[in-house]
Amino acid sequence: xxxxxxxxxxxxxxxxxxVALVRARAAAAGSGADEPRATDxxxxxARNVPGTTPRPGPAAWRTSVWPA
Length: 68
Known about the structure:
Structural class: mainly alpha
């Protein structure tokens, strides 16, 4: 891995901090630490999909918006 400084004159301490950060991120990416967590029931998009379509009738407009 090669890091090239485009502008400025970083101190050796600043370069060491950048290299440590890049190596830590690369190690975390290789271990799968940033994998998405399982979502709970409230965040599940399938929760918003209606189970059945409302039957025609006087309250059909209400049941199309507010599930029973």
